[in-house]
């Protein structure tokens, strides 16, 4: 594992160095330069984008300017696949019922779910527990939602809280439904991510929640992050869009997970 992490970190530094010499680079170009799969490159670029070091552009990436770090770590991710996130969020929100207590993580997808719940006229008296600062800000003025922002160490760019205080606070609540995003989803590894603190926190929430709902667009299928935080048999629902591989959707359903597929309007 130590060797794997070292090689992964070295590869990501190579990507940053390549981008420092070029205005932009495509996934296919990086795949050839580094002699790794395009899936691996996309995972690396997603991680570097979350760190604010690169900007995801169509088909590849560009180097982020230091002054744009916050923009690249959240707002740009929020715009990435925005149509897909909107469609997924609208469908996921239909699973929320009056008086539910739900968990929303710090992902941009979870933020979209929160906004969809806020806009739904049929959802009333809902309690939302979240580890995402921007999610809390987006929904806190709703008269139909009681927003609880978890405490803990606040990420300066991600707006995510984490750490032992966060875990202790989450453990005090009964969560009906947990809506969780992920860097990747595979049949073998389940849901995975790259941030160790968020991975640990999501593992805890998955174990605590009565129902676990993964909200992942089709581009996340087949990707694997640094570590897994939920196996397929722990997922009650997967909400995705019509770009997800049909064979994986069928396999998920065969394993007992309910899959809801949103149609993305172009």
Query: What letter string, H or E per element, gives the SSE order?
Result: HEHHEEHHEHEHEEEHEEEHEEEHE
CATH architecture grouping of the largest domain: 3-Layer(aba) Sandwich
Structural class: alpha/beta
| Average residue-wise pLDDT | 87
**Number of helices, counting only DSSP H or I runs of 4 residues or more:** 10
Distance between the termini: 42 Å
CATH topology heading of the largest domain? Rossmann fold
Rg, Å, rounded: 18 Å
The domain count comes to 2
Helix proportion range: 40-55%
Task: State the oligomer.
Answer: single chain
Q: Which terms would index this structure?
A:
Arc Repressor Mutant, subunit A, globular, 266 residues, 2 domains, Rossmann fold, three-stranded antiparallel beta sheet, single chain, alpha/beta, 10 helices, seven-stranded parallel beta sheet
Question: Would you write up a description of this structure?
Answer:
By secondary structure, the chain is of the alpha/beta class. The chain has two domains: 2-79, Orthogonal Bundle (Arc Repressor Mutant, subunit A), CATH 1.10.10; 82-262, Translation initiation factor eif-2b, domain 2 (Rossmann fold, 3-Layer(aba) Sandwich), CATH 3.40.50. It is 42% helix and 22% strand. The strands form four sheets. Strands 6-5-4-9-12-14-15 form a seven-stranded parallel β-sheet, sandwiched between helices. A three-stranded antiparallel β-sheet has the order 1-3-2. Helix 2 (27-34) packs across helix 3. It is globular. It starts with a helix and ends with a strand.
